[in-house]
Amino acid sequence: MANEKIVTGPFRLAFPTLFEPRAFTDGGKPKYSITMLFPKNGESLLPKVGGPGIMELRKLALAAVKEKWGEDKAKWPANLRNISFADYVSPNGKDGFPVRDGDAAEWEGFEGHWYLKASSDNQPGLVDAKVNPILDKAEVFGGLICRAQITAFAYDSNGSKGVSFGLSNVQVLKDDGVCYGGGRQKPEDVFDAFGEAGATGSSSSDDDDWG
C-alpha cells in the first residue's frame, strides 16, 4: 500500500524543523519537516544500514498517485499525467512532484544529491543511534546522517494536486562532521586565532568609519 509507513535508507539531513513547527509560506500552516538528501551516485552513506533510497521513494510516490486516482493516467491530474516517475525532477517543487535536483539548488552541500521534503502536522519522534530520545535541539542540525519513517500520499487541496511525503519519526545515525542546510558552523571556520601576539586592541582610526 502506498500509505504504508516505511523506514528510509540513510540520507543527509537538511533544514530540520523538528522541535517547533514552521510555516514556509505566508499564511501557511506551521509544520514539522525535514529535507532528505540522497547521493546521485546511489552509494549508501552507511553501507551497513539498508533501506529504501531515492528510486524506491519514487516508486512509492507513483503508488500513492495510483491509489488516489487509479491506474488510468487519463484520470490523473494534468500536472502528473505525462511525467515519468522513474526519472522526472521537479524544477521548483511547485508542480506537485517531490523530487528535486541538488545541483540546481542554491544551498551549500546539496550538489551531487537528489532531495525531497517530508513533513507532519504533529511533532515526529526523534531518537539517536541507540534509540534514546533527543531532547536538545542543539543536537540536531543539517549535515547529520539520518533515516526516517515516512509515508507517501497524494493530495488534492484548493486546486493544488500532487504527491508528497508525510513524516512520522527520525533517527540520527551519525555525525561525521558535515554541517550544512540549517547546520551549525564549525568554530574554526568562524574565528581566527587570538592571543597576545595577535591582539591589536581598539584603534581610534575606527572612528573614521562613522564619518
Overview in brief:
This protein is mainly beta and 211 residues long. It is 11% helix and 30% strand.
Ordered list of secondary-structure elements with their pairings:
Elements (H helix, E strand, L loop, with lengths): L5 E2 L3 E12 L8 E9 L14 H16 L8 H4 L18 E2 L11 E8 L4 E3 L17 E13 L2 E15 L12 H4 L21
Parallel strand pairs: 5-8, 6-8
Antiparallel strand pairs: 1-7, 2-3, 2-7, 3-5, 4-5, 7-8
Q: What does this 3D model show about the protein?
A:
It is built from three helices and eight strands. It has 211 residues and is mainly beta. A five-stranded mixed beta barrel has the order 2-3-5-8-7. The protein is globular.
Task: From the structure above, extract its key features.
211 residues; mainly beta; 8 strands; 30% strand
Strand content: 25-35%
Number of alpha- plus pi-helical segments: 3
Structural class: mainly beta
Q: Outline the biggest β-sheet.
A: 5 strands, mixed, barrel
Instruction: Determine the N-to-C terminus distance.
Output: 68 Å
What percent of the residues sit in helical stretches (DSSP H or I)? Answer: 10-25%
Q: What overall form do the CA principal axes indicate?
A: globular
Strand order of the largest sheet: 2-3-5-8-7
Which parts are unreliable, with pLDDT below 50 for 5 consecutive residues or more?
Answer: 199-205
The Rg value, from CA coordinates, equals 21 Å
Oligomer: single chain
- Care to count the β-strands? 8
Overall pLDDT score: 89
Which series of helices and strands comes N to C?
EEEHHEEEEEH
